[in-house]
Structure formats: C-alpha cells, structure tokens
Write a structure and sequence with these properties.
about 1450 residues; mainly beta; seven-stranded mixed sheet; six-stranded antiparallel sheet; 5 helices; elongated
C-alpha cells in the first residue's frame, strides 16, 4: 500500500467528439506495474492539472477502460460514485426575454400578458428514474403572477433575426398529454417545468417558450434592478436522494458576438410601464390634408432621470415632416399656474417613418436635456400634416400614443389607452379628420358674454353660437365641446329662429334642426342627434355656461365643434369641424415673487410679476400683500421691468401695514386719468426683509407654503372688494441670517485661460465663487446659488461643480492659499440641480466658519443683454444668506437686427445686419465673423466678397467705411461663414450702432427661421485669448419663390424710361407658387425712393393701378381680380384679397401702375423690387428683381447771356446755374447749338454755391477751368480724375460740389456761335472719371450777326433826295461836304445777315448821333434772280426820331447781300 508503481509511459487528453473538449485521459501504464488480477491489486491513479469545464453538469458517473497495447481485450467499468460541477456564481444558462414579440400588455396591473422567453441551457437535465428528477424554475420579479406556458409556434418575428432551426426547441405546454415530456407548475411568481421519466434537455439546447403572466400592480422601470432568473435542478445519475440545485442565473441581454443580429431583440427583463394620466392630443385643424400643430398633454407616473425622451406615435399617414421635426412650447397661459410644465430642455426632434400606405413620417422622438418628473403634467405642440381623407379608418381614432423613455432609451411610462380629445371622457377616442374647415368667417361664431369666474361673479355667462351655417345640406350629428372646466347649463337655452322673438336667436333663418342637445361628459359637451341641416339656412343656439376659476392649463382653451359622426371611421360621415379659441378667464396668473437675496433685516429688491386679464380703469390699482413683517417704504419706488404696450410710464406706489402685520403695496398708474391695459406686469420694489423666517410646506394656506404673497386687481383702489380678476397667491421665500462673505472671484488672465472662462452668450461659462460662513455647517444642507436673469444652469449641474485645489483655478499653483482654504473632503457636493438661473447644491457637513472657500461652477449665459440693475448673484447656505454681489458683463452684441431684402428660396439677396458691439473691435488686427445657418451661401468671387459697413452713432454723422479699408473673405470650404477685417486705425467703437450689408444666397426649399451667429475677435487667432463679443441674431424663414417675378416698362417701347424724375408706367408679373386664400395680402415694394401714393388725395390712394391681361400664355392669369382692396403707402402697394374662393397655386399675377422715377438711382443694396404674398403674419412666397439704373438729371438749370456783346461770334459773358444731384468734383459744360461756340479761352469770373438747406451764396473757392488738353488731375492735385476738356465748345470746371447745392458759374471770354437762335447747352457732372449726372437744357436765344459790308452817308445832292438845281461849280464844291444841319441826307448800307430773316420779322434801325431818321424813302434792296437789285417789300414805322422799325413782308436769306437806304436829317452839327 502506498507504493509507487512506476512512471507512466504517456498521459494525453483526447476528445470523444472531434473539435470539442478533450474529455478522455489516455494513460500508458508503467511496465513495472504488478499485474492486476481480481482484487488483490487495486492501483490508484491521481491526475492533476485538469482544466475545468465551461459548462456545469449534474451528478454523473465516470467510465474507465483497460485494454492491451493492441486494444484487443478492452474491459470497461463505471464508477460507483458520481461527480458534479457548478460554475460559480451560477450555472451560466443564458436566458432572455424576447422584445420583438409579445408584451402586448406592458402596463402595471394588466393581466394575461404574453411574454416570449429564450433559454440556452448550460447543463443537461434528465429525469433518470422518476418524473421530476430534473426541472428548471423561472422566477419572475416579485409582483408578477405566473399563469400559463405553451409553445411559441413558428410565426414569431424573432425567428427572422435568428433563422437557425436548432435554436427553436420547444417544450410541452401546461396542458399535459400522453406526448408531454414534462409538466408545468405555477406558484405566485415562479413557473417550474418538471421533466418526465427519461425525458432530457441536453446542454447547449435552445428552447423558446411563451409565458402568460399577470403584471405587477406597480411599475417596474428598467433601472429598478429587478431581474428574472432561471435555476436548474436535477438528481443527475444519483439513484435516490434530493434534487441538486445550481445557483440561479439572471436573465441577460446577450451580446451580438454570441448570436448576431438577434441579440438586439433580447433583453434581461421586460419593463412594466407606468400609466400616463390625463393624456390628450388636440388638433388646431381637423381638416384632411391640413398642416397644423397638435397640442399634447400628459401626466407622468414615474421620474425618468436626466436626458429623458418622448416618443409620439400618430396613426398611419400622418406626416410630421422632415428632419428636424418642429416641436414647440404651448401658449404661455398653459404654464401660467405651474400645474402644467414645459418640456425640460428640448435637445432634438427626429422623425421615424410610419407604416402607412402613403409613407408618411408618423412617429417623432423628442430628446430632452432634463428629467420628466413623476406626478407632473407636461404640454407641448408639434407640427403635423393630416392625411388625405380617404385614408381615415376607425383605427385613426385609437392610434395616438405617447411613451416616455429614460436616457438609455427604455420605456418608463406610456399610454395604456389612446390619447383623447377631451379630458372629460374617462376612456375616449382621439380626434379624427373632417372634410372641411367649419371655422370660415361668416359660417360659425361663438361669443361668450363674460369670462368672469362663477366664483367671483356668482352668475352664469351666456354663450351665443351663431351663425351655424353648413357648407352643404347634410343629415348629421353636431357636437360642441367647451374648454376644460366649463360647464354647460341649457335650462334657459334657445334654438328657434329670430321670428320667435325673445325665444329665438337673432340673425337666424330657421330653428336649429336638433333642438335641445344632450349635456354629457361632466357638463362639458353638447351633443345633438342626427338631423338635416340645410345649407341655405342660418342656425343658432344660445345657452348658459359656468366659467371656471382659471383659464384651462391641462387642455387648450378652445371650443371644439364637430359636424358629423365623431366616432365614425367613415370619412364620408365626417363633414366639417372647427377649433374656436376662447378668451382668458378673468383670473390673475403668471404671478411670481423673487428676491435678489434672502438675508434678514436687509433691504432687498423684489421682483413682483403678475398678468392681468381685465383692464384696470383709472382709479383702480394692483394690490400686493406680503407675508407678515416685511416692511415697505410708505411712498415706495417702482422700477418698471415690463408692462404691456401703452402701459403706464410711471407708477404711483403706496405701502402700508395691515392688522396682520402684512405689507400691502398699492400700485396704480401715476397718470390718474389713464387706464392700466391688461398684460404682464413685472416691477421692482424695495423691501426690508424681516428676521429669519422659514417657509415650510403648508396645507392651510392658499399657496401651499407658510409664506404667501397675494395679488389682487381692483376697480377702485379705495375699495378692496372691487375685484376685477380673481386673485392669486404664490409662495414666498425663507428669510435667513447673514453669510460672513460671498463674492464672484475676479480672475487673473492666467486663471481665466486655465479654466477656459468665456463670458460670451450661449457658451459654457465657468465662474469661481467664494464664501465664508458665520457658523459651522454641522449637517448636510442645501446651497442655493441664484444668478442674474438669463443664466441657465444645466438640470444636472453636478459635473460642472469643482471644489479641489487642482480644478477650481485650473491648476494647483494658481490657488492662492493665503486667501482660500481648501475645501474639506467631508463636505462633499453630492448633487446639483439647476433650473433656469438657480442652482441647488447638496453639500455634506464640514465647511467651517471663518474660512473662505472657493468653488467653480459651470453654466450658460443665454441672455443677449446684461440684466442691468439685477446683474447680481446671491448665495443661501446653512441658514445664512448673502447680500447681492456683482456679476460679469456679458460679451455680446446688442440691438441686433437681421433683415433680408427677400426671403425667397434660391435667391441672391442683400442682407442688412444692424448691431452694437459691447467691446471695441481694433482696426488692423480685429475681425468680425458672421456665420449663417449651413444651407445659406455668402456670395463671393474666389473667396472675396463685397460688403458695405457703416457706423451710425446716435449723435449723427454717419460714417461709411471705404471699400479699400475692408477685407471681406468667405471660406470656399464653408461658404456659410464670412469674415470682415478692418484697416489699421479704423475701429468698430463699443456702444455704437453699425450696419453691415452683405449678399447671401438663400437655400433651396422652404426653411424655418434659424439663428445666425455674429462674433468679434481682437486678432486672427479666433481663440479664447482673442475672443471679444458673440451674439445670436434672429434669422428669417425662407419661403417659396414667386417665379417669373419681373418689373418691366409698360409703355411698349424698347428704350428704358430711366431718366431721373421721369414719369413711367411699370408692368409687374409674378407666378404664385402658393394658393391665394381669402385674407391674403399681396405686397409689392419698390426701392424706397419711389412713391406710389397719389398725393392729391388722402387715404392711401395709388397713383394708378390696373390689371394687365397682356402676359405670356401659360398659367391662369390673376387679372381683373375681384374682391380686392388696393392701397398704397410710399413705396408699397398692398392688394388684399377678400374673394370667397381660393385661387389655386400657379396662377400668374399681372398688373400695371404709374409712378415717377426718383432723382437718382437708389443705392445698389436698395435697388430692388420685392414681392410677397402674406397670410397673417407669415409670408407664403416672395420674389426679388433688380431695379433699373436711373440717369440723374441736374435740376434748376438756367443759362443766360450777360453781354456786354450779344451778336453771334462776339465774345461775351455767359451765366450758368444748376442744382447738383450727386456729389461731384468735375462739371463739363458744352454749348451744343448753334455751332461755332468756343469756350476754349473761357475763364471763371464767378463761382458760388447756395447750400441745399437754403441761405446766401458762398464762394466755391476751389473752382477752376481746366485748360484744354490738360487733365483734371494736374490742375486739382486730386487722385482719380483723368477726364480732360478737348472740344472747343466745352469747358471742364474742377470744383467740389455737394449733393443738393445750387451752383452759379459766370464764364467770360465765351465766343458766341456763328449764327443766332435758341441755344442748347449740356451739363454733366463727374466724380473723378465716373460719370454721374447729365442734363440738356435750352439756354438764351442768341442774336445773329448783321455784317455791314459797306456804308455811306450822302448829302443833299444825292439824286435820290431830289436835290435843287445848282450850277456845276457849286455842285462840285458841295459834293465833298458832309450833310448840313437841317438838310436832307441819305444813309446807305450794304448788309449781310447770318440767319434767315423771315417775313413778318422786323429790322430795327437806330442812330446814336443827333440825326433824325425819316420813314419816307426808306428802301431795302436785294439781288434778284436776274442779278439786278430788287426792292424788298416792307412796312416802315418810325418809332422815334432816331429809330425805325422795318417789318419785312418777304424773307431774306442768310448770307445774301442787301442794300438799305435810309433818308436822314442832321439836327445839329456833328
């Protein structure tokens, strides 16, 4: 015994099944081994180093075989004992719940829920000797009840993901038959399957089961940690004894590595959903095909934790549109009382495709930043397009569902019944589609006589429902649902037509067919049975209603009117429906009281906020009552934060203390004769806090807390019973002792960069705070950090809280140990919950008095403007409170406004951006960066863009940056970003308004408004060290483009009518991509310098307006449109359509109108014609067309001849005056006609201007005539002008003249034209070489030239004078004499005229010497056709003794010689 038998020849492992585990030990016995015969020799084999199996097994015997080396004589034996192996912690069976099938009843308390289970067995189960020698037990979480089990069949969707047939094993169901291989027993939450004798489930087998269970009565979210388990039991190969149980295995979600895609459809356990309560889905439009917003309400049962989500499922064929879907908050009144909350931070809204026949996007997933809280009600709205009517079915009324999800995507709560239309229905149907919109004006009206609550007035209100006029004659039912909380009373109802007198309804033509209705659903609903309604009749109904104490907040504030079978799935039975908004109940709401701090016995600034519904008349007031011991100054001062439009500019504030030591503040309009309009009032009032006062929850106060503030609106401020709106009470705040110290730490630049502090809005901001306690914090407590309005803490703000010395200031070495104590390890910050500008931190005990502790917090500054007076922080902790301490100034732009010339899709449009920097942008290094939403595209040429930038200081003096002082670039890889760099020395000044004009291409397709981002930097680094201001700028929606939009001249000529101040007829065409509906307005906007108003009449009448049918063929033409109202204002034409029928999309608009061109071409960024089709406040489509260039015309042009010489070809002085239209540096003057003018030697004698504002003339000191052939540059020593005067009939004058100035030039040494006649002058202005304005004008009439070829004065001997007879000697002597005094003489002239002298024109003859001219004997002779002199017929008039007028009776041709003979008498000696 104990003897070593020798060394083994070999020891190796071998496998029974190739490729599986080596479960055979092959030993070659030692040659020295004593032969084994009988029982005399019993060798013992010891094996070690064996690997443990991966799978467990129950008790089993081992086999051994001895044979010779040739394996000819084998001998086999089984062990007399067993061995088993259970791998810790369990048997490692893999069990999961199938998620793709079953679980049709997932809600708490539901019974008979069918669940599918997949089990991969880790060990073999076999009943060797008797039934139930082997079994497995499924244990469900406590609360479940096992009911039944059966096979799954082959139709599971899961099998499409796991197609291997060997993974579809099945077991017998709970009904036992002869073929059963086992049977089920159920006990509470356990389901056990016992195997019959010799039945087996082998290790590795995969079984599929269908279990039926009753769900727990309480919800079990995925995060609850409750799991299903499976436990295997077996005796194995033991002949007797008890079952051995392996440790239980929890169900798991297997990895895809194990079973591929099927893993995604398996889970560790199903979720037992909570039930959403008060679930509603309410439309704003019932009409088939309508695009509208549905309003959704629900009350959650369970909290989700942060990053929750909602999944809203619509019936088939409803379409939530493309990505992202449009989810929004509801109207403010819904959230006014706090009973309904906004969704906590919508991060995204995505759309999933539904299964409908039309492929609609019928499911949305709304991702949230915050937490859905159990017991809280929420409301939101989302845009959806209704399906066409034909797709309606009964299922449509039952298929609206909502599920609340956790951050992991697991369902938490859901709707066990369909979302309803009306809260009054315990279990009802959702809303369905109707064929038409009932609410068209003139066919349905609902008026409520008073919205004062019944509890305040003690009286029922009267509701008049009239007219009720159906679109077609129908036999149908009618239902009217009042807003939630209203109760109908039909005891005094009227439904007869107006002929019934007092019993009838005014304005009706027939009795309401249904008569009196039934009042159902908690008195909220009127239902009329089926009756025939005739489209020719007008019906009405009058009843009374009890108004609730508040505007509904758990439902929309509207009446639902349904004409048709509202519970029918047949679209033909559903005719018309409408949603008619109700007014607000006259009850104060939106009340709130906040304080800048909560420290005891200290003066604090309170913010009092309340919304009034009724107008407070003159003499009325708002009364605010505080909790006890708050003290207001008797003549309190009010700072206005917000009031309604036309609200008081100042308040009269009087305070007093009532008998309960409560402060009463009376707020009235300081203008005692003026009312206070309804709306939101937000006011600052100073108050002295009382001593420390807690504010515990209370069930005995109207606000639910010990400290209540009450708001009342009074008709008469002297009578507290004259209540207008139902009063409201809101919780106050606890008052605390004083913190020793609190501050926002001012960081060094190194510290700021180390913690990455940014004070730009919309970005994560990190601030370091410090405090010092007056008393030790001996217990865990809440710290409240209260920031300025506009600060936004994350809902879970704990990750942004830093208290360690390595984090607070960015690095350990930046921590100043001389000032700040290290935060104690025991004082752990365990939680941080943010809500708007307030963060609440949970802190364990450990902070000590007398130590200054610093910590860092993270948030977003969302406001675009500093909150000004309330730009402060305060801290509450350990029953101590700080005084307010100063916050940082936000680095942002203010007064931002983004205006496109046109919002039309695919259109290049000028874009006007106004902004006011808070921080100056340095020229030479600074930059502006404007980032558009990505579908937009900044226009550029190879990365370079054209912009305009102006500074617009309030003090006046607009400054325009020159283009060479700006560098505008667009990144060609990201064309939605534009960068503007400034020249050195040209800063953008802080606090000054600026305007930037750029050009952007709008995206293709409609696009909702998205924010643009404007940033400034001190350098091109564009990092935190360079960052200056940043601000989001509200964008604009992109709308459909009105195609073929054009503006043309409508006079039928090709030459443009483009001269300044010319009258023109313009033709406008546009094709409307949207239908034209009743109430739509077509707006046409010209450049601002145009005017379409007829100034001779009042009331916005247009110059002219007419429809133009002369358009290209094609689409229908909107011409001679009826039922329109046309009005004009300045550069705008409005065409309001009031027709009864819609005009289909694609119609073509065509119209003509007259206007007058402006003086000059509008600025390039403003020279556009715009078209918009407006529907209410929205734009349906738009168009943009370039305006035309206008040639400016100089004004008030006058040209006169001053003399002293007037005849043609003489040199004289000419005066020119004119008013310039554009700033200019050169004036070109040209004498166009008659020919022969020469200005080559002209000089300026006079150059003066009169200011555009009036006043006397001022010298134009820099004016000079540019010599012929010399450029203006050489003369003026100015850059850019290169124009030179080269024509003899032109003069170029260099002078700086401003727009609007009246110029007067006097040119001397002007050689007049060669011939007389009316003169034509041309005046042109230039800015350098750039041609500006031009005007041709008629000048003076120039006299022609009379040339005297020969002249003589003959004495009395002239034969023509019939002289006396004289001797030859005497005659010879006298012939040399001049004429004698008083003797006749004859003046003879040979003349030549430069111009034709027409018949009826007169020739004047006069003399300066003392001669007397005689009319008798005057003769004018011309050379006739024969070459002989011929007398010219004329009529002579002696106008004075020295002048004659000769009226010609025939024409004298220019340049022909004529002879003039005039008898004279010398009166005196000369």
């Amino acid at each position: 015994a104990g003897q070593l038998c020798g060394a083994l020849g070999r020891c190796s492992g071998e496998a029974v099944v190739e490729g599986e585990g080596r479960n055979i030990a092959h030993l070659e016995l030692p040659t020295s081994l004593t032969p084994i015969r009988g029982t005399s020799v019993t060798p013992t084999l010891e094996l070690w180093g064996l690997g443990l199996p991966a799978q467990a097994f129950f008790p089993a015997k081992l086999g051994a075989q001895v044979t010779d080396i040739s394996d000819r004589f084998p001998q086999f034996i089984e062990s007399s004992d067993t061995i088993h192996w259970f791998s810790p912690p369990g048997g490692s069976s893999v069990a999961s719940v199938v998620t793709s099938d079953g679980d049709a009843k997932p809600f708490k308390g539901e019974t008979g829920n069918e669940l599918y289970v997949r089990i991969a067995f880790a060990a073999t189960l076999r009943s060797v000797a008797a039934n139930d020698d082997a079994s497995f037990v499924l244990t469900l979480p406590t609360g479940y009840t096992c009911v039944d089990a059966e096979t799954t069949g082959d139709a599971l969707r899961f099998f499409s993901y796991d197609a291997l047939p060997q993974r579809r094993g099945s077991l017998s169901g709970s009904t036992v038959t002869a073929q059963s291989d086992g049977e089920w027993t159920f006990s509470s939450n356990t389901c056990e399957y016992g195997l019959h004798t010799q039945a087996a489930i082998y290790a590795g087998s995969v079984m599929m089961l269908k279990l039926t269970a009753d769900n727990p009565s309480a919800a079990m979210p995925h995060s609850a940690g409750t799991s299903w388990t499976i436990q295997l039991k077996s005796k194995g190969e033991l002949a007797g004894g008890s079952l051995l149980s392996m440790p239980a295995d929890s169900f798991v979600a297997p990895s895809s590595a194990a079973i591929g895609d099927a893993a995604a459809h398996l889970a560790a356990s199903p979720v037992v959903l909570g039930k959403l309560e008060d679930g509603l889905v309410q439309p704003s439009d019932f009409t088939a095909g309508a695009l509208h917003k549905i309003r959704v309400f629900f009350r959650a049962e369970q909290a989700t934790g942060l990053r929750a989500a909602l999944r809203l499922t619509a019936p088939d064929d409803f379409d939530f549109g493309g990505e992202p879907c449009n989810v929004e908050d509801l109207e403010d009144y819904i959230y006014a009382t706090g009973s309904t909350a906004v969704l906590p931070g919508v991060l995204a809204c995505s759309v999933d495709a539904g299964s409908g026949a039309y492929g609609a996007h019928g499911q949305v997933l709304i991702s949230l930043d915050g937490e859905i809280l159990g017991g809280s009600r929420y409301g939101f709205q989302v845009q959806v397009r209704n399906p066409v009517g034909g797709s309606l079915s009964s299922a449509t009324l039952e298929a609206w569902h909502l599920t609340v999800l956790s951050a992991s995507g697991h369902p938490v709560d859901g709707t066990s019944e369909p979302l309803r239309l009306n809260l009054a229905e315990s279990v009802g149907l959702a809303w369905g589609l109707y064929g038409n919109r009932f609410g068209v004006p003139g066919r349905l009206g609902i008026e409520v006589s008073s919205y004062r609550p019944f509890s305040l007035s003690g009286a029922l209100a009267t509701v008049t429902i009239s007219p009720i006029k159906t679109l077609a004659t129908k036999t149908s039912r009618l239902r009217i649902i009042a807003p939630f909380g209203y109760e109908w009373d039909i005891s005094n109802a009227r439904y007869e037509n107006e002929t019934a007198g007092a019993a009838g309804v005014p304005g009706t033509s027939a009795d309401l067919p249904g008569g009196l209705p039934s009042v159902t659903l908690s008195n909220s609903t009127l239902e009329w049975g089926s009756a025939e309604y005739n489209e020719q009749h007008t019906y009405g109904f009058v009843a009374e209603i009890k108004v609730p104490d508040a505007t509904p907040t758990a439902s929309v504030n509207a009446f639902f009117v349904e004409f048709g079978d509202w519970d029918s799935g047949d679209f033909a039975d559903r005719h018309e429906a409408a949603v008619v908004s109700a007014s607000d109940v006259h009850a104060l709401r939106d009340a709130a009281v906040t304080s800048a701090h909560t420290m005891q016995n200290a003066l604090a600034t309170l913010t009092l906020q309340v919304r009034t519904i009724s107008e407070i008349p003159a003499g009325g007031a708002l009364l605010v009552t505080s909790p006890a011991n708050f003290t207001f100054a008797a003549a309190c001062h009010v700072q206005i934060l917000q009031v309604p439009s036309n609200g008081p500019a100042e308040f009269e504030c009087n305070a007093s203390t009532n008998a309960q030591d409560k402060g009463e503040v009376l707020l009235a309009n300081k203008k005692a004769t003026e009312n206070m309009p309804p709306g939101l009032y937000s006011l600052h009032v100073s108050v002295t806090n009382p001593v420390a006062t807690p504010n515990a929850v209370s069930g005995s106060t109207p606000c639910g807390y010990d400290q209540c503030w009450t708001f009342v609106s009074l008709q008469d401020k002297t009578n507290t019973s004259s209540i207008l709106d139902l009063q409201t009470s809101v919780p106050g705040f606890a008052v605390r002792g004083q913190l020793a110290h609190a501050e926002m730490v001012l960081l060094t630049e190194e510290q700021r960069l180390a913690i990455k502090q940014s004070t730009r809005p919309g970005r994560v901001t990190r601030i370091v705070f410090a405090l010092e306690l007056a008393e030790d914090a001996t217990s865990a407590a809440e710290m409240v950090v209260r920031g300025p309005p506009g600060i936004l803490f994350k809902t879970d703000c704990l990750p942004g809280v830093k208290t360690t010395s390595t984090k607070v200031f960015g690095r350990t070495e930046l921590w100043d140990t001389a000032i700040y104590s290290k935060w104690p390890f025991a004082a752990q910050v365990t939680a941080c919950r943010g809500s708007a500008n307030v963060a609440r931190l949970g802190i364990e005990a450990g902070l000590l008095a007398g130590h200054r502790y610093a910590w860092q917090m993270e948030f977003v500054a969302a406001s675009s403007d500093d909150p000004r007076d309330d730009n402060v922080w305060s801290v509450d902790y350990n029953d101590e409170a700080s005084l307010p301490f100063q916050s940082f100034n936000l680095s942002t732009f203010t007064d931002t406004l983004l205006t496109p010339t046109s919002p039309a899709e695919s259109t290049v449009t000028p874009l006007f951006l106004e902004f006011r920097p808070r921080t100056a942008v340095p020229g030479g290094s600074g930059m502006l960066v404007l980032q558009a939403p990505t579908p937009f595209y900044f226009e550029h040429q190879h990365g370079s863009c054209d912009i305009e930038l102006m500074s617009l200081p309030e003090s006046g003096g607009e400054f325009k940056f020159e283009s060479e002082d700006l560098r505008c670039t667009v990144d060609e890889e990201s064309t939605f970003t534009m960068t503007v760099e400034l020249a050195l020395g040209l800063d953008l000044l802080a606090g000054v308004r600026h305007r930037l004009v750029a050009h952007v291409r709008n995206p293709v397709g409609e696009l909702a408004s998205q924010a643009w981002v404007l940033q400034s930097f001190a350098s091109p680094a564009t990092d935190l060290s360079s960052a200056l201001d940043e601000g989001q700028v509200s964008g604009f929606p992109v709308v459909k483009a009105a195609t073929l939009w054009s503006v043309q001249f409508g006079n039928g000529v090709e030459t443009p009518q483009n001269k300044g101040l010319d009258y023109v007829t313009l033709k406008l065409w546009a094709t409307l991509p949207a239908e034209l509906q009743t109430g739509d307005v077509l707006q046409i906007l010209g450049p601002s310098s145009f005017s379409f108003v007829n100034t001779s009449v009042n009331g916005g009448q247009c110059n002219s307006f007419e429809w133009d049918a002369d358009v290209p063929s094609g689409a229908p033409v909107v011409a001679n449109l009826q039922d329109v109202a046309v009005s004009c204002s300045s550069s705008q034409i409005l065409v309001a359509y009031g027709g009864p029928a819609e005009i289909a999309a694609g119609a073509r608009l065509a119209l003509l109108f007259k206007t007058r061109n402006p003086r000059v071409t509008p600025a390039a960024s403003e020279n556009y014609w715009r078209f918009e089709q407006r529907r209410g406040s929205s734009v349906e489509c738009a168009g943009l067309a370039h305006g035309y260039r206008i040639t400016p015309q100089l004004e008030s042009v006058s040209v006169s001849l001053l003399g002293p010489l007037f005849a043609a070809q003489s040199k004289s002085e000419v005066q020119l005056s004119f008013r310039v239209v554009s700033n200019c540096t050169l004036v070109l003057i040209t004498a166009e006609d008659p020919p022969g003018f020469s200005l080559a030697a002209a000089t300026l004698r006079t150059a003066v201007v009169s200011p555009s504002t009036g006043g006397g003339e001022q010298p134009l000191s820099d004016a000079v005539v540019v010599p012929a052939g010399l450029s203006a540059t050489a003369t003026m020593l100015r850059p850019s002008p290169t124009l030179a005067s080269t024509s003899a009939n032109s003069a170029l004058i260099a002078a700086s003249v401003r727009e609007g100035q009246l110029v007067r030039f006097v040119l001397e040494d002007v050689k007049l034209a060669v011939a007389g006649g009316e003169t034509l002058w041309s005046l042109e202005t230039f800015a350098g070489a750039v041609h500006l304005d031009k005007r041709e004008a008629t000048g003076f009439r120039q006299p022609g030239l009379i040339s005297v070829i020969h002249k003589s004065l003959k004495n009395e001997l002239e034969p023509a004078l019939s002289p006396l007879e004289r001797g030859e000697a005497e005659a010879s002597i006298m012939s040399s004499w001049s004429p004698r005094v008083s003797s006749p003489a004859l003046a003879e002239f040979s003349l030549r005229f430069s111009n034709d002298v027409a018949a009826s024109e007169s020739l004047g003859v006069s003399i300066d010497a003392d001669y007397e001219l005689k009319s008798e004997g005057v003769g004018l002779f011309s050379i006739g056709a024969t070459g002989l002199l011929e007398a010219v017929a004329l009529s002579v008039t002696r106008t004075s003794s020295r002048s004659l007028s000769l009226e010609l009776q025939q024409t004298l041709r220019a340049l022909s010689d004529v002879s003039l003979v005039v008898p004279v008498v010398a009166a005196t000696a000369s």
